[in-house]
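Forum: Protein Structure Q&A
Topic: Joint prediction for protein chains with partners

I've read a bunch of threads here and the consensus seems to be that you should model interacting components together rather than docking separate models afterwards. I'd like to see that in practice. Below is the full input, 516 residues plus whatever partners are listed. Could one of the regulars post the assembled result?
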Amino acid sequence: MHHQIDSLAYTNQLRSLPPSHKVGFAIALFILGFVSPMGVQGAIALWLAIWIILYAGIPAKIYGQLLLIPLTFWLLSVPALILGVSFSGNVNPVDIAWGSRYFYLSQQGITQAQTVLMRAIALSSCLYFVLLTTPFADILNLLKAWRFPTIIIELLALMYRFIFVLTDTVLELVTAQKSRLGYRNRRSQFRSLGIIISQLLWRTLENYRACSLGLISRGFNGELRFWSDRQYQANPRYMVEAIAGYFVLLLLAIFPYVDKL
Amino acid sequence: MNKKSRRLSLLAMAGLSLYWVIGAARPAQAMHIMEGFLPVGWAVFWWMVALPFFVWGVRSLAQITQQNPNLKLLLGLAGAFSFVLSALKIPSVTGSCSHPTGTGLGAVLFGPGVMTVLGSLVLVFQSVLLAHGGITTLGANAFSMAIVGPWVAWGVYRLFESRQQHKIGIFLAAALGNFVTYLVTSIQLALAFPAATGGVMASFGKFAGIFALTQVPLAISEGLLTILVWNWLQAYAQPELQTLKSIKGQEVVQS
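Posted by a regular:
Agreed with the consensus. Here's the joint model:
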């Protein structure tokens, strides 16, 4: 349980770009990636890898590990996508028979698996671009500018803050338990975890009491406001590359349709 | 056995081993549909299905917090608690490790309506901080983990509570809350990717079969763990449980 992504979002080299540019760029690519053919999706993934690793300076190893997550999920569902079961008989010589059933590789499934893989990688790259370059606080400010309901923004901000507090609490509890012979076998694993969760709930409510006392004593009237004084600077070089590159990808995406006309 | 079929079976063996080595390394994240996995139509469809529940939940929360602004803090903390809970690793019965969904405990502690909103926000954080799940698939994931899961858990818990069988109720609420989440995810995947022969049903069988390997033991583990938590809370944290009643909705504490 570490928040590597979050700390990278604060320290990457694209941090000073306006969040609206970064998020807008990602959303535009996202929409394109959803509807474009596989080649363009691959281009999007490669281009964003350049942005993330070269321009933002995210270590390639970490980015690779992140891309492994959608890949794992894809691998898990590949058998379900491409394996078919048939009772009607042996259609293909390579089918494997098991009793009266025949297992076969379905052509439709293989195509499906390919499209899903490319789409998942292209769209995950867009998501990762935002995650790795834009801190959550910036995203919240953006949501505020876009007139999201206040209660959702407030809840997100509070959760964001306390996730780190509670994560620290859990790590401390785990260390304490491990140094007192916790987690030695399965039985004690369950016991230790049970204690952690209940203690965590207790600490959560303790935090709540302390915080609400603090807020009330400072004249809390039901409105939570967060202050930010961050200055952002647009970078012409990146803007030109983003817009020109997007234009090229767009042309590549609509070219097959124009060809058909 | 001729040369061709031998080569084929060798290929199949290699593929299968690779599959298990990579796939078994992290079975934990399997139950969130990853970003970009669903086609446009289904992604939009599940957003449309989940949105009314979410809006309804947010509106009831807005009402509660207007009456008592302090509860905003409590809700935020409850959300953070749910997130940290879902990021814990629990030992599964088969020996692998996995993350609990926490929907069962959350639904019983905070109420299913609140859990719909908090669970959806937890999913947002899981995709933002841990890169699990995604934004286009958020609708589908929220439907399975933040809507169906909590309501089923809550229903089961209430059913057994009315018969004074608290422990069975808690166990089944947590285990079924987890299990139903996985079933709904399998249905969602099956609907999006129906099999060539047999259609949606065959496809559901395949997806459910694959995920059952990790999810059934995990559901049992989560149930057992939740009983331990519940016992502790009953014994030592009665005042805290009373505090939590204020966000459940039915018993709004006026202060």
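Chain A touches chain B through 86 residues (CB under 8 Å).
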